[in-house]
Amino acid sequence: MLSYGGKTRRAHRTMYELMHGRIRPNALHVCHSCDNRKCVNPNHLWLGTIQENLADMRRKGRGTKPPRTKPKARRNQVQTAVSIPALPR
């Protein structure tokens, strides 16, 4: 975030506007081709809709959760019957 023109704004959006001109408010988002939200390199910034940004993310294989390797223990989970050895008397 930075202050520019008397307003607090996102740095990447401000950089895009300085290099390419004003963006209509609420029209498009400034997206990152490098997928680094902190990046302000004008060569990495492009205008797009939320849908276009999500499609770009999916195309790059980003934003997907890795498969769980170990199942989580759940409360009140029903256990299957097992053979329990008798306790010595």
UniProtKB/TrEMBL annotation:
SUPFAM superfamilies: His-Me finger endonucleases. Residues 56-89 are annotated as: Disordered. InterPro entries: His-Me_finger_sf, HNH_nuc, Homing_endonuclease_His-Me. Keywords: Endonuclease, Hydrolase, Nuclease. The keyword Hydrolase applies. GO terms for molecular function: endonuclease activity. Residues 59-75 have a biased composition (Basic residues). It holds the Pfam family HNH_3. Residues 10-54 form the HNH nuclease domain. This is HNH endonuclease. It comes from Pelagibius litoralis.
